[in-house]
Write a structure and sequence with these properties.
The chain is α+β, with helices and mostly antiparallel strands. A hairpin with a 6-residue loop joins β7 and β8. α2 runs antiparallel to α4.
């Protein structure tokens, strides 16, 4: 009877120990899942269009009103920084935002098309046209920073694509999505282009910054 009692007690102890180990493992797994979710929700990924240099000026239009900021002009430098920082922030959505938005693993791309894409009417009463402008020629790059090359028929063009202007639209959509950046090359005088960047981003924060500047009376009617 004594041996049976000891055996039952030993089994009970093993059961409690195994149950405790199982609970610890479950809590550890749950903890890892929670930590992973938190990290995915806060870790940003750079999926927007990237440029080697900051633009020297930023031109803005909504409806028939305009505003220009210059990073070296004391009168507009603070607004320039607000706009540029909001652009950078929007270009770095969190990992979880790209997952739920269906853009996981996607990001910037550099493109050439045989037909031209117009950027003539990007602005309207609810959409901003944003123009990044550089004083010196910039070179179109691939996402890894190498010089962009493109296919023309059976051959590959290795001549640098140079530009000073990039145009894109910003509206009030609060969503991570593909955005198109129209590159106006230095050899192009029209409002259409064969060269574009695309970037996965959410520019709602940028929209809010620009909209506040409109409310502050910084946009003036086009002359």
């Amino acid at each position: 009877m004594k041996d049976t009692t000891l055996e039952i007690t030993s089994k009970a102890r093993r059961k409690r120990r195994n149950s405790k180990i199982a609970s610890i493992v479950c809590f550890a797994i749950i903890g890892v899942l929670i930590l992973t979710t938190i990290l995915l929700a806060v870790i940003p990924v750079n999926t927007g269009a990237k440029f080697v240099n900051q633009p020297d000026q930023i031109y803005l239009k909504i409806g028939s009103t305009l505003y220009q900021v210059d990073k070296e002009d004391e009168a507009t430098k603070a607004d320039y920084e607000k706009i540029w920082n909001a652009y950078l922030q929007g270009s770095k959505p969190t990992v979880i935002a790209t997952i739920f938005g269906g853009y996981a693993g996607k990001g910037m791309s550099s493109n050439y098309t045989t037909s031209s894409n117009s950027f003539n009417d990007l602005a309207d009463e609810t959409t901003f046209e944003v123009v990044f402008y550089w004083n010196n020629n910039q070179t179109m790059i691939n996402p890894d920073g190498s010089m962009f090359t493109y296919q023309i028929g059976a051959s590959v063009s290795t001549q640098a694509v140079e530009f000073r202007e990039v145009h894109f639209a910003v509206n009030n959509e609060n969503v991570v999505k593909d955005n198109t950046f129209y590159i106006k090359t230095t050899t192009n005088d029209s409002t259409s282009t064969r060269f574009t960047y695309t970037g996965v981003a959410n520019y709602n924060g940028l929209y809010e910054v620009l909209n506040q500047m409109v409310k502050d009376g910084k946009f003036t009617p086009a002359s």
